[in-house]
Structure formats: C-alpha cells, structure tokens
Amino acid sequence: MRSSCAVALMVLCAAAAPVVHAQEVPVGTAPPRATTSDAARWQFDQCMGGVTYGAPLKWALSYGMGWVRESEQRTWCFLGAGKVGFGGASFNVGLANSMGHFGSGVAITGGVLRTFNDPMGALAKRTYVGGSVHLWPLLALGGEVGYYTRIGTDPAGTTHRRGLLTWSTGFGF
C-alpha cells in the first residue's frame, strides 16, 4: 500500500510540474545575454524625506522624489526635493547617491529658496537661488551646507549682503 501511494504521489507531481523545453541555439551564434535584474532598473520613487533644523528655514520638513536606481552596493537618484520650515521654503533638484547598508550617502542640489516673515540669519520675504551639498554619514543622520544669492532688487537703504550661507542638520535629507 505504501509503495503504491508513493508511486501515485510521484505521478501526480510529475503531471503537475511545468514542462521545460530546451532552448535551441543555432550553430555559430552566441547564447542570449542575461537581462538587467529588476533591482537595477530606474523607477520613479521616493528618494528621501526628513526633519531638519538650520538657517534660514529653522525647523523644516523635507521630501524628495525622483528617478531611482537601486542596487546592492549603491542607490542613485535624480531628484526634486521640497523643504518647508518656519523661516521659509525651498525647492531643489539634484543628484543623490547612497552607499552601503548603513544609510550613508551624499547629494548635490541646486534650487530656489524663499524666506518667510522670520528667517534665521536672512532677510524676510526674499528669494534666493543657489546650491547645497548634503552629507549623511550614518543612518540618514547628517546635514547640508549651501550658498544662495538673493535675486531681485533691494529697497533703498538695504545694506545686508546678497549672499546667504545655509546649513541644516537632522534626520533625512
């Protein structure tokens, strides 16, 4: 009885198994190349988000999305990122690269920054353009340093310089 059950089980498994055909390769041609895995394809996805504190935005929330290419060693992202804080808001575009399994990485961005009524270390209600370097050495903890230049005309009597050094530190981008 046991042997007949085992044979019946083997027959059922063989009948249920998918049919595999050998691939025929014409003589004198190379076999087809392996395709890129799904993990290494570009896709539109979230790059980074976070909470930071710095000048001129003070406490701020940030969120970035873009074209992401993930692999085992590195993740690249061409991104657009918005950041809104108590002292102002900014929108940047750039390139980010995260490395390893510990959440470290670096990014370079350029964009527009607008201050609100009470920014830290900048004139209120002004628009700036510039760029930043972002560095997060471990677990998305890090910061950024940037330089922005005020655009537009200033009212008569304004003696504040046109350049603005920005900085922030926190969790995320």
Description:
The protein is mainly β and 173 residues long. It has one helix at residues 2-16; strands spanning 42-55, 58-70, 74-85, 88-99, 104-115, 127-138, 141-150, 163-171. An 8-stranded antiparallel beta barrel has the order 1-2-3-4-5-6-7-8. Strand 3 (74-85) and strand 4 (88-99) form a beta hairpin.
Throw out a few tags for this protein:
54% strand, single chain, 173 residues
Q: Brief description of this entry?
A:
The chain is mainly β and 173 residues long.
Uncertain parts: 1-23
**Biggest beta sheet summary:** 8 strands, antiparallel, barrel
Strand content: over 45%
Q: Oligomerization state of this entry?
A: single chain
Cα separation of the termini: 67 Å
Task: Provide the gyration radius in Å.
Answer: 27 Å
Number of strands: 8
- The main sheet orders its strands as 1-2-3-4-5-6-7-8
Total of DSSP H or I helical runs spanning 4+ residues: 1
Helix/strand/pairing category: mainly beta
Order of helices and strands: HEEEEEEEE
Average pLDDT rating: 80
**Globular, elongated, flat, extended or rod-shaped: what is the shape?**
elongated
Helix-residue proportion: under 10%
